Amino acid sequence: MLKQFFILCSGADSQILNECSNGEQNKYAGVGATVFFTALMATIACSYALYTVFDNVFASIGFGIVWGLLIFNLDRYIVSTIKKRDSALDELLQATPRILLAVIIAVVISKPLELKIFEKEINQVLLEQKNELTLANQNQIAEQYNPKIAALETQISSLQAQIDTKEVEVDALYSTYITEAEGTSGTMKLGKGPVYKEKREKHDAALADLQNLKAENKAKITALEGEISTLQTDYKSSVTDSQPIIDNFDGLMARVNALGQLPWLPSFFIFLLFLAIETSPIFAKLISPKGEYDYRLQDQETTVKTWTLQKVTERKLLLKTDNEVNNKVYMEIADEEDVMNYKRKKARELMQLQANAFFKNQKNAL
Fold first, then answer.
1. DSSP string of 279-299?
2. 279-296 pLDDT, tens per residue?
3. In whole angstroms, what is the distance from residue 305 CA to residue 298 CA?
4. Which keywords does this chain's UniProt record carry (predicted)?
5. Could you tell me if 114 and 49 are in contact, meaning their C-beta atoms sit under 8 angstroms apart?
6. CA pair distance 133, 248, nearest whole angstrom
7. DSSP-assigned states of every residue in 63-87
8. Strand runs (DSSP E) across 5-119, as ranges?
9. pTM summary value
């Protein structure tokens, strides 16, 4: 049963192969087994590749089975259409497009398996890329908020500078009226005279202005600090909202690109392995001599071809003979008097009808 199944997978004619020896049957069973297991590997590879995209086991397995059946059909077609010829050059020309197709299939099958085999190394590369993307994302978002925050901080510094300047002025007035009272400056008279009162009033007025300025600027500074806090909150929110996109940066294309950053030699050997598996049935047929199955198949095909060509030739000969007979018959009839008289009569009637129709048209026109 298993042998017959693999023979079916090889694409060989089972009726012809059943008449061949066991060795011939085993050869095609081996070819069919290679086709089957290649399709099985294609199913596994596609299922894993689609799982990295959909994150759904059932959908991935379903599409993987469809893909495996497609690869199975292509491989079976490639193997079944390669036939032994009398010339090695003809066989090579026949196999060349099929070998190219097998190379493409090998690439498609091997790549998802490479992703699975080197999964840990790919995850390390993706982690480094995610860290770089995270920093770049934070910097890009910061470029949107930092200028606004810097402008607000400049305004706060300006308001604080106004308070500091006013405090320096108040301190200077305070020192002036104190030294006036002590007699160490100004009028140089000890005591609280008119000059002292004048300087004290200036200090008190400046102190009141300072208090008002502090109240106003503190309110403005508090409002500006609130805006800065809002901007900082928005910045953190933007970073938080965009981070899941970076965290999910592990799809199929990202993994393929990460695989490309790893050393190429291990991936190349895996590709060569699948290329050998995919092309082995083709080369096995090319290098093997003509077997019993090939001769029986050739006999069957040439029999049908010869019979078809014979029927086509007979039809052409029959058509040619029939044309010649018809020509002779018409030539003999053309010389008979009865035929000439009949044709003459009908021609006369046709000319009369044409004349009557022309007369009616001319009369209607007038």
1. HHHHHHHHHSPP-HHHHHHHH
2. 777 777 777 777 777 777
3. 10
4. Coiled coil, Membrane, Transmembrane, Transmembrane helix
5. no
6. 12
7. HHHHHHHHHHHHHHHHHHT----S-
8. none
9. 0.54
